[in-house]
Design goal:
Length: 618
Amino acid sequence: MTQSRNKRLRNRRLLSWNSKYPPQQGYRTRDSETGAGTIRKSLARDAAGSLMMIMRRVNLVFFAALIAVGSVPVNGAAPGSVSGQVRDSAGVPQIGAVVQLLRPDLTLVTSVYTNDKGHFTIAPVLPGRYAVKAMGTFFLPSLREDVRVRTSTVVNLTLNTLYEAMQWLPSEPRAVNAQQDDWAWTLRSAANRPLLRWLEDGPLVVVSDGSGAAPKLKARLVATGQEGTFGESGERLSAAVEETPANSRELLAQVDFAPDTAAGMESMLGFRQDLGFAGSIQSVAAVAIHPEVEDGGSEGFDEAVIRSWETVNLGDEIEGEAGSTQVVARFAEHSPNTVAAALPFATVGWREGDNTIRYRMATSMPASQNSDDTQAQAWLPALSVRNGELALEHGLHQEIGWERRSERAGMTVLVYADHIDNPVIEAMGHFAAGSLAASPVATQLLYDPASGLVRAAGPGFSTAGMLASAERSLPGGNQIRISYANGDALVLPASAGAVGLAQVLASAHPRRAQSYSIWLSGTLDGTGTRWRASYRWQPEGTVTPVAPFAAQAAEPYLNLHLRQPIHLRREGTGGFEALLDVRNLLAEGYRPYLLSDGSLLVFAQDQRGISGGLAFSF
């Protein structure tokens, strides 16, 4: 009885449970044992569901934490770097420009200087957001904001003058409903894009390059005092203006003169038209007036040059250049003593990767091998006197060579053959009669009373030789170049006593010689001083250079060139540039001759000279 009663109670509880938790499909309720199994399975199923819900919530919390952590830089993250190049609006790399890494609030993190290629690198830099600012002498600072640094970040900046920035003013007034700026002072482009920003308690900076219409005008004033330079000694003022009416045209005008004197004046006008991928067309006209230069019988010497050439590119492999230099020179007004010549030149090269095979032909030599192309003197050929007649230094130069260039190094090897007519021999003159006009050697020399230098024409000669050079960029933005050349050069034998000038000039003869040179340049960190030093050695007695047609050859003997920015503002912008050039610092290579009339001539490849002054660009 008791067992039957207990069994009925168990069945009643089971029916009550099944009514609350009905069995699902696939399960059968058979008896008390079957009901107990169903209860266990239901409990397990409820526990699994609860566990899945808990795991889902944990995953959501975990991913949210990952997102939050990933959006904030971590001190332990791998550091990155910021690198790039600083150029002006014409694309010329800016050496020694200051580049600053700033925090988002524009406070300084660190600063570096650009190297001789305009490149800079800032490392290590923790990942995050920064601003990069570049500053150069006579340029507005350039600012790039919201720079995100993760690993290696490249930021290229362009420096512009105030005049260039002003060309970006809008051509039409802004609309009333135009977007307002949160900056205190802003210039905007015609496309309503901010270009200039006046930083709070800081300078005016260029925020963007303003691509599109980009006319530019640059002016440069230079005041110098110099000696030891034929036709240019004394106080000099030079003014140059460079203008680009459009992206494909360039115009350069320059004038150089001596103030408050009747001394010489030089001027030039250059024009370049870019033809895009095909090449370019260029023309330069240069005029020099030397009222004090004389040859004893005539006074006042003028020369003019028009040089026109075209560059052509045929794909990426072939490049060519061809042109001609027209020269006219004369003594005094209406003088029959006139030189007129057409001097052609041409270059063709085949390029494959970093290697170039090049052939070059030239017939004219510049007055200075290392002159600045923005100066008229760089385009004027050298003249002298032979038997009272003007003599133009020229010849025929042919070379074929191999050149290899990379970003940090270069190498050139070439062979050449030259024929040179009227090579110029220069000397410092001290005349016993007090002036060249009263001297019996007057008709054999071209004389500049301002510098005391004379020029004579040596005998023509032919030569052949080779030239090799190598250059490489060094750490700290420095550069080195070494070169070797061999060939013939004019030699003057040592004098044993007083001789006549005609005998001295007749004794000049070509002799096989070698030349070694080293050239170093760079920018000093901190001061921004740009410097260049060079030394070229040739055997004693040589009075003309070996390989006179060599491009970018070092000047004879020891030379030093310094450019020191003088900033007028704390942020390093504005101000002047101090210039100092010293040629043949050790006064080497001198060949003295005592003439029969008591005059003294000291011949040398390059006389010792010094030039110093101030330059201002705007």
